[in-house]
Every structure is written in C-alpha cells, then in structure tokens.
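#struct-pred
JK: can someone run the complex with pyridoxal-5'-phosphate? inputs below
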Amino acid sequence: MSSDEFRHWGYQTIDWIANYLETVEQLPVLSQLEPGDIRAKLPETAPVKGESFADILQDLDKIIVPGLTNWQSPNFFAFFPTGISAPSILGELVSAGLGVQGMLWATSPACTELETHVLDWLIDMLKLPSQFKSSTTGGGVIQDSASSASLVALIAAREQLKADINQLVVYTSTQAHSSIEKAARVAGIKQENLHLIEVDADYRMCPELLQQQIVRDIKSGLIPFYIAATVGTTSSHAIDPLTEIGAIAQVHNIWLHVDGAMSGTAAICPEYQWIHQGLELADSYCFNPHKWMLTNFDCTCFYVKDRAKLIHALSIMPEFLKNQASTSGKVIDYRDWQISLGRRFRSLKLWFVIRHYGIEGLQYYISKHIALAQEFAECVKSHPRFELVVNPPLNLVCFRHKLGDAINEKIINNINSSGKIYLTSTKLEQKLTLRMSIGQATTDKIHVKQAWQLICKTAEEIENN
Ligand code: PLP
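RT: done, structure tokens with the ligand placed:
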C-alpha cells in the first residue's frame, strides 16, 4: 500500500470507526449469532492475490459487526466495562504506526521514559503511596492485564525466598478474581496451598480468619508467602480491609499484592480515595485503565515497592541484548519487569487520554457512573419484589428478584436475548445475583432508566406467566 493509499484508506477507516461508535447504541448489545455463523461467511482458504481495501472494509459491516457483542454500547452493563475513547484509539494508532519495540531502554528511549513518567503521574493523580514512585526503590510498569500483574508479583515474591515450592502458601479471599488462582497454578504452587479466606457480610476478606490460617500453616511447617487482597471484587465490589491485612502481612513477612483492577480508577476523585486506605503496606498494586479510565485494552498499571525484587525474578541477559545503556545501570529495561521480552508503546494511549481529558475530565466520568449506580440501587430498594444484595460502594449494583434463582435466571436470559441491554450474573451466598455494572463512557441517566424499566417489565411478564 503506497503512502497516498494509506492516507486514503486511513481516513476511510477512521470514518468507519466513528460511524460504528455513533450508531453502536442501535445494535443488539449481545451478539445474536449461533456458533459457527461467522466462519460460515469466511472463505475456506486465504486469498492468493491481494484484495481491494474497499472490499475489506465492506466485510467489516457484512461479516464482523453482526458477530460482535457491542462492549461500547451505552446499554452494556455486563462484567466490567472495557473503556475506550477517541484519544486512546488515536494513541493506539500512533503506537501501531511507530511500530517500535520497547523491550530495552535502548530500543526506544521514549517508549520507556514516557511509560515511567505517566505511571508516576498516576501515583499523584490517584494519591497512591509514594513508595511506588520511580524516584524511590519502587516503580511502575504497564502490563497487558491484571492477571499478568498478579502473576509477576507472585513470581517476585516466590523468587526472593528460595524455598521449597511445595511448602509455599498463597492467600486470597473466596471473592477474589479467578486470576489469582491461575497465577498460583502457573507459578507452580500446589493447589492445596491456595487458601481462600472467608469473607464478612460485605464480602470483604476477614483479617482474623487470615491470621488464624497463617498461624495454622506455619505450625504445620508451611511457608506463607503471598497474600492477594482486592479493591473492588468482581462479584460484589467488596473492598478488602488493607490496613488490617497489611499489618498481618508485615508481621509474618508475606508479600501483599493488591488487585484494584476495576475500582482503582475511582481514586481519581478525592471522595473515593478511601478505597486505597492501607495500600502503603502493600508490596505491589495494580489497576486497569483499560476498564474504567477510557483507555483501550490492554493497559494495566502495575506498581512495586521494590523493583529490585521484580527484576531479580525476571531478568535474564542473553548476549544479543547486551548494550551500553543497560550495562551502565542508569536506565530501566522493561523486559525485566514482565514475562514476555517484546512490548508495545502502550503508554502513548494513556498519555493521550490523560492529556486530552485532564484530571477533571476523568473525574467527571467516575462521578457520573457512581451516581448512576447509586440511583439504580435506590430503584431496586424501593421495588417490592427486588432486593439489593449488598450496598454498592461504587458503580456495581448486585441485586436479585426475591422469588429465587429460577426467576432471576429467566430474567437475565430474556433480557440478554432481547439485545436491548446486556447484564451478567454471579453467585453470592449461593444465590443467583444480577450485576448491573455501570462504566461505559456514553452511558447516561436515560440508559439506566430504560434498563431498570426493562428489568421490571421482564420480571412482571415472567411472574404473570
Ligand atoms: N481482578 C479483578 C478484580 C477483576 O475484576 C478482573 C476482571 O474483571 C481481573 C482481575 C482480571 O483482569 P484482566 O482481564 O486485566 O486480567
């Protein structure tokens, strides 16, 4: 493709994306296709001769769009949101256009230094503990996902011990994300040495039970080495008591990792900075701008208190990567902070987002979503046949119909197959629970109101049948 053709089709592609985002609200939120429908529309084999770009763009509408679940619809209330924004899309585009590899400082100094700098900015923006700043022994790095962040933290904790892996014990709550269990499995921790600690009535990890389990394990000759606490659990948005958990971790010299994947971004508003109370006791922390900070997937900000431990765990220097800058010890080589060697210029999109919206612009979205969720919770509370399962601390409302699992299951299935909104469910106290997760940038009062009307109407129809 020549430069002129690239310009032409580039403009057309941006137009296509803008049109998609302008009209996404009219599309079914959950894809209505059957398994295999998309592949049936694709040719059996790859084209031998190149095709026209016009045809390729047309097939986006014909083949791809019908097979999408539209995460960017303002009526998307499932899982947690995957934030995007125009500045972030443009940042991704520039990153693709530059095509640089940031594995070493030397392979593109701007890629490394912008990342370090933007991650330091975020510490001030979210009032995170200063121990994570690059000017201390700590530092931040962008990982692809919160799952990777939990894994590399666990590996760093494991490597500093040099102990028998069969003796190592991981702790997290029964409500923690499944990525913690996966991290333990990938890092070779025995399955029976992953201890899930029970939670209180608000689904927060019980520090007393954690303490008791640790003491029991030490008595049986095991080595407690990693606690993963959560700020904003996936099922109920519980915020674990970091101060108490951190104190226990310090007494027993256990690595404390805090997973704020979804909720960390809330701390951009001063009134929600309480969610990180006690975070200064953590060895590592992560949150996902790719969920709630208008930044395209993938972008997890991961911080450590002692970068030397992370680098010790992950650094290998083959001959072909040796260079003067690395040898000087004056630079960061981010390949030593992650599992893979290669890395994209991911900080560009975050830099674009932060500069375009500013702190106040980002605060607007967080405040809006939390206010909408609180209003939705009030509607649930005042309905005779629905109940709130837990008071929502932020923007996730967990609720259910009082008549039990069967009706809740029908409600969610009917709603999702209508394509009008998309909700997902979880189990809390063994009971099916509906989750209303409000965090899509374009979601407004009207969308939440319509969603509630649809939920009530669907429930009524099922009750009357
Ligand atoms: N931790 C929590 C609390 C989450 O809610 C999620 C995903 O929703 C994850 C971790 C996993 O995030 P990622 O997809 O970035 O690995």
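RT: quick notes.
The chain has 15 helices and eleven strands.
The domain at 3-70 is CATH 1.20.1340.10 (dopa decarboxylase, N-terminal domain).
JK: thanks, will look after standup
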